[in-house]
Design brief:
Length: 381
Amino acid sequence: MAKNDYYTTLGAARDASADDLKKAYRKLAMQFHPDRNPGDKAAEAKFKEVNEAYEILKDEQKRAAYDRYGHAAFENGGAGAGGFDFSQAGGLGDIFDQMFGDFMGRRGGGGGGRATRVGGDIRANIEIDLSEAYFGTKSTIKVQTRVNCDACDGTGSEAKDRAASDTCSTCGGMGKVRAQQGFFLVERSCPTCGGSGRVIRNPCRVCHGQATVARERSLQITVPSGVEDGTRIRLTGEGEAAGAGGQPGDLYVHISIRPHAIFQRDGATILCRVPLRISQAALGGEIEVPVIDGSRAKVKIPAGTQSGEQFRLRSKGFSVLRSAARGDMYIQVAVETPQHLTRRQRELLEEFEQEATQHAKGSPEAEGFFAKVREFFDGKS
């Protein structure tokens, strides 16, 4: 039976780019994978056909030979893919490896090669003041981590026998194992060899073959200006060591900002609540307020200012992270009712209340509300 044209099998044009071929293959491989079509012989056959076509066309030399000679280039012992053995495909996990391995930023070895040992990631927490978040700061932290063992240079073996190791029987030297979890195949580092693919014959007496030892490290962290509460800073390669030939993990620093006694923050905006006496709000005037950078600013308060009104101070807020832009500062006034009045203050307020009753225009909001109340009750009667 004659084979279908490989380009036709993938639904791709003969001049398709490598990316276009890969996209076509991914779509069909997911569609016809036997794990998604259990018991469907036709789907399994189509899956094998799609894989055979892509195995040829993804290789530039094989593709050139196919374009020139067709299927004949790989017959009679040629260099082609031949019959595709699904048992060697590794199941749906391999499809995900090919599709998403690079996208997910995997640091381990891809395909069927040995996995690269990767050290563990570390988390550290630091707390800073609001002013430190405004200006930026440097902070020294201490972290408990693992570093390469000095006694064995991170090999895990005694100095006289560093090359002596055997292929791991659990993973067959691949450094990774797979386990079925429902529909998916989950891949992880081999628990026996830790991802190295080898088992040490004569372990180091200091690290007991682990290649790393526990140690406390001090690191200086640079906190950028404008950082927000909950920000996470990643320091690549500052995590736990993985032994000789391995890749260290990362350090993730989580930043929290202590509450400030005067200022509140909302992104790049700073809020400052300023209480005003009744006389200040009624008569108006000028007040002096602090600014986060340590300076002072004067704010003019118009006569008749109401509680809750805000006044804007441009560019007095936080800088926007990784930007030259700067937010604003808002002064929100809160008119405070006086307490613990002196006799004279009470007399003055009583005089004021008498005047206010006769001249209601001084409190239009109150007068308007009670006018509506009177209308409400008049309508009821």
